[in-house]
User: Fold this.
Amino acid sequence: MAAGCACQTTEEKSLPYAQLDEVIAKYRGEAAAIIAILQDVQELIGYIPKQSIAYMAEKLHVSPAKIYGIVTFYAQFRLAPVGRFNLMVCEGTACHVNGAKSLTRAISDELNIAGGETTEDGMFTLERVACVGCCSLAPVIVVDGEAYANMTPAQVRRLIGQLREKEQSAGEAQIAKEEL
Amino acid sequence: MQGKTVVKVGLSTCGIAAGGQKTYAALAREITKHGLDVELRRTGCIGMCYIEPIVEIISPVGENDYYGAVTEDKAVQLVEEHLLKSVPPYGLQVSHEKENVFSKQVRVALRNCGDIDPESISDYRSRGGYESLRKALLEMSPEQVIGEMLASGLRGRGGAGFLTGLKWRFTRAAKGEIKYLVCNADEGDPGAFMDRSIIEGDPHAVLEGMLLAAYAIGASVGYVYVRAEYPLAIVRLEKAIEAAREAGFLGENILGTNFNFILKIKKGAGAFVCGEETALLASLEGERGMPRLKPPFPAEQGLWKKPTCINNVETFANVPWIILNGGDKFKAYGTEKSSGTKVFALAGKIRRGGLIEVPMGITLREIVFEVGGGIPGGKNFKGIQLGGPSGGCVPESLLDTPVDYESIVKTGAIVGSGGMIVMDETTCMVDMARFFLNFAQNESCGKCTHCRVGTKRMLEILVRITEGKAQLEELDLLYELALEVKEGSLCGLGQTAPNPVLTTLKYFREEYETHLRERKCPAKVCRELLSYTIDAASCTGCGLCTRRCPTAAITGEKKAVHIISQEMCVRCGNCYDACKVNAVLVE
Assistant:
């Protein structure tokens, strides 16, 4: 059981303990592999739930503070889940020079969220990243691993609409399927 | 292979982002449909990222044609016209363009990029791959390998520019049974993608370079520390390691000698400071990536306190070429103190953005205007940022500066890892300084007070300047702080973080002063200093701007000219972005 906190939160109950154990076992419980373990856990759950930190700390014989310190030090790790669509706005130098800020602003304005936040319906997250390395296509937005090149604020707004539609029609298809 | 037409598609991150996979699929489909006897292959980045996806068609007699911006539908056209009718579609041809881009280039580190299939070890071997390893293991002593590296004069391509051969000699001389070799592929400089392209385009060159280094210093275990943000690079590296192991180039008793070497990939988790070698080592050990004091240098006490040699991706990619062709041949390129060639990533306001490799000593002007094709849209050149957030901005008056380590440092910038961002008249230099400082501030690990707090205070001043809230005297304070941060920081991040501010203050001081004295941004970038009005002659009264305005500052009847209330306007710029007829004016 998780160390430190005796209360059973819903989050804790839903943690996939068996899979967490597998990840830890894969790295033979070595504390030096914390970063790799965290990367696997994030791949598994989508983020690093706070309760998983306490659990891993106990298994790896380190303090939760140490793991928390690592999680918050590296940009890759997230302590909260992301939305269905993670809108990654590249704010690297080339994108900045070519107007990345106006893209961030357009998303913020359209969805009413700031960088790092997720919309209430859990559909979109706005993530501002340093550089995705497609500098010649600046400004770039990456969604679900697909890069959208030479974007304008108007195109960003259109993209959000398209993604929303896509998700809705997928949802309706799912419902129709279930009804059958 | 002779007697067959070969079609190659550039499939690196930039090519894929531009739709290269769809092009590849369309080509495959069309070739099968027409039953053509054509070999379709994937390759890495040729460097002309601005016209990706790029397709190269090589005729059975070896003549090649390059095509740019080949989208899915253009791929169909290409198959029908070039392959079926043998009438090359000239509208898509970029062969001439390629000649222009390549005319000043000398490709050593990039020798195979955009040519071979990065996922095929036999392709790499057909270009002399792993021959240097054979030569070194069977004919040369480790000392001779180091000697050859010293003769080449190759300096570390990661930024600091330390002599590679010397680093190897120190690590070889260090006492210890176990020694480690580390490849730094944590390319964090925003706006630079040299290392990514090399790994994606020619991963075996990096592996072979590492094998040669391991042999020279006496290491049997190596790590590649690569950014998690580069998934394709990681996949190609994994495949390359697997193929090299199967071919007997990795593992035990390599090529029948008693040389053993195993290689592991470690994924970074996103921290710019991990490009600093001691921070990188801390991260490899599973800690927060915080730099430590040197000495002891990693060559004496590195990973797990064992002697460790850390080199950058591009450095390793040069090594096999140097061992095969001789250090002297590498030294024949470049200048006396900065020998050889260097890869640069050209981006920003440039016509032909992409990856280039040029001999050291070439001038910035040649790079920007001859290789890069100058500024698009008839705008004027303003400056070029070298070395990313650790570097500086070089103005037009210094464009004839030769690109070598010493000359660039004299301008206040650094060669760095090779990122070059071109800026034109629409770029605000105060905003750029703010951008870089914001980056450095975010990435400061927090260990040193000067870096942690100093950069924050500097950033606050810059923000106030761009918002029109600062006083002229604060420029002196900014300058003073910049010097303090440089002096009071332990590692390269803090020591160089003020460089963008110092160089823009030195070369573009009048732009700072205009922000402060007149509360105006000449490049029209700093929104708080702009005023938005609607041009009555072009406004169609469509109402788009009204709907986007967050403060209801825009009024007007439908189909009548709209007006922006200056009192209510918060200068967000939404109306400017929204207007389809460019009726919103900015001053």
Observations:
- The CA atoms of residues 560 and 576 of chain B lie 18 Å apart.
- Residues 5-102 of chain B form a domain with the Glutaredoxin fold (CATH 3.40.30.10).
- Chain B has a mean pLDDT of 95.
- The longest strand of chain B covers residues 341-348.
